[in-house]
Amino acid sequence: MRTLILLALAGLGAQLVDGSLGMAYGVTSTTLLLAVGANPAAASATVHLAEIGTTLASGVAHWRFGNVDWRVVVRIGLPGAVGAFAGATVLSTLSTEVAEPVTTVVLLALGLYVLVRFTFAGVPAGTLGKPLRKRFLTPLGLVAGFLDATGGGGWGPVGTPAILAGGRLEPRKVIGSVDTSEFLVAVAASLGFLFGLGSQGVNASWAAALLAGGLIAAPAAAWLVRRVPPRVLGSAVGGLIVLTNVRTLLRGEGPTVPDAVQWTVYGLLYAVWAAAVAHSVRAHLRAREPAPAAAEDAPAPDPQEAVR
């Protein structure tokens, strides 16, 4: 019972973060399942089974709050489903040890770009509102879906920063569209795991606990992402991407990094992240201040002075 309660709380927290920042549900939940003894394939299968319900609830909530661009959902979700099904069926034989560091470095670079761009430049005005190209979304969906199924998470960390970096869609709609399209990925991955594993190793009670927590958090997260200013949200997402991937690099399969060095790096990153978010908040508040009105009581020019 204690494990189920912890899983429900983890599902609630993970969905709150995922629904408001567009990532981290799968990574957080899968990490916890691995910690309690599940093997990677069973952990990913259990999380994706829970995600069928959480992503549906999250998508409905984001739609009701106006956070969804349905063209993006279709263009990234359908290829994402194909990639997820493929990833799920080959997970038992595929080694991601070589691919993981490369993916992490790419995500870290994207996270730094998003963090710097939104912190210092705000929401890009030149490209905002322009349609996202299918030739960009299709391969992005395939890769993100494949990584999501094979790693137990990755749809948000890959899809959200890549679309944010393009600057064509405001952050809340990026997050809402990525979250909504994840329903297709979760269904396809679950079918792939059913095809490849059957029900072997999938713990239905664990999936139900994760689902219960996620269902509670989904509406709150969709409301939150609509209320947070886009510039602040962009800085928050960028910082989360950087922190997540630096942690992956420091704790990867390479040379062991001493704990003291790791905590020093984390401390510096948290300080930079907090400063970036604070800067974005101040810039947003300054932008909302009304421009000073022209002085109405200024004396009219003297006609004689004009002649002189």
UniProtKB/TrEMBL annotation:
Transmembrane domains' residue ranges: 72-94, 106-128, 181-198, 204-225, 232-250, 262-281
State its location(s).
Cell membrane; Membrane
Task: Say which domain of life the source belongs to.
Answer: Bacteria
Q: Which UniProt keyword terms apply here?
A: Cell membrane, Membrane, Transmembrane, Transmembrane helix
Among InterPro entries, the record links this protein to:
TM_pro_TauE-like, TSUP/Inactive_protease-like
A GO cellular component annotation in the UniProt record: plasma membrane
Topology in membrane: Multi-pass membrane protein
Major location, coarse class? Answer: membrane
Keyword Lipid metabolism included in the entry's annotation: no
Q: Which family does it belong to?
A: Belongs to the 4-toluene sulfonate uptake permease (TSUP) (TC 2.A.102) family.
This protein is called what? Probable membrane transporter protein
Q: Which organism is it from?
A: Streptomyces solincola
